[in-house]
Amino acid sequence: MQIKALVETAPRVAHMLRTAAPEAWARRPRPEVWAPVEVLAHLADAELVFGLRFRLVLTSERPALPRFDQGALAVRARYLDWPPELALERFRTRRAETLELLSSCSAGELERIGVHPLRGEVSVADLVALALAHDTDHVGQIRERLEFQDSARRDEGET
Questions:
Q1: From CA 25, how far away is CA 22, in angstroms rounded?
Q2: What is the pLDDT of residues 51-103, one digit of tens each?
C-alpha cells in the first residue's frame, strides 16, 4: 500500500545525510537549480501542504484544495540557509503527523474527494499517490545532486 511507502522517505534521506559531505548539501549544481538542502526543505514545507489537503478532504465536502508557489516560498523561507538536519527533522515531524492521520482512514475515507486547482477532482488515495511520486522525484534529485557534488569534488582533486 502506498501509505506504508510514505514511511520510507525520511530514512532514505537520513542515510544520505549521514553519508554525504556536509558542504555538498548547500551547493547548487547551477545557480538556477536548488541545492540538496533546498530540495529537502521543500519536501518539509510541501508536507504541510499535503497534510492540509488531506485534512480538508477528510473533514469537508469536496473542498477546494490550495496551491502554493514553491519558488516564492523557497526564497521567503530561505531554504538555502536551513541546516540539513533541521530540514530533515521538520520533514520527519510533519510526515509522522500525516501518517498518523492516514493510518486510521477507512476505505471509504480514502475515496473522499477534493478539488485540486490543476488536477480537478482528487481522492485521498490520489493525494497519497501524488505525495509518494513527489517524494520519489525529490529524493532522486537530492541523490543525484549529492553524487554530482561528490564527483565534482573527485574531479577537482584529480587536476
A1: 6
A2: 999 999 999 999 999 999 999 999 999 999 999 999 999 999 999 999 999 99
- Could you tell me how many residues make up the chain? 159
pTM more than 0.85: yes
3-state secondary structure the chain: CHHHHHHHHHHHHHHHHHHCCHHHHHCCCCCCCCCHHHHHHHHHHHHHHHHHHHHHHHHCCCCECCCCCHHHHHHHCCHHHCCHHHHHHHHHHHHHHHHHHHHCCCHHHHCCEEEECCCEEEEHHHHHHHHHHHHHHHHHHHHHHHHHHHHHHHHHHHC
Q: If you average pLDDT over every residue of the chain, what do you get? A: 93
Question: Which domains does the chain possess?
Answer: 2-150 (1.20.120.450)
Cell of 116: 485540486
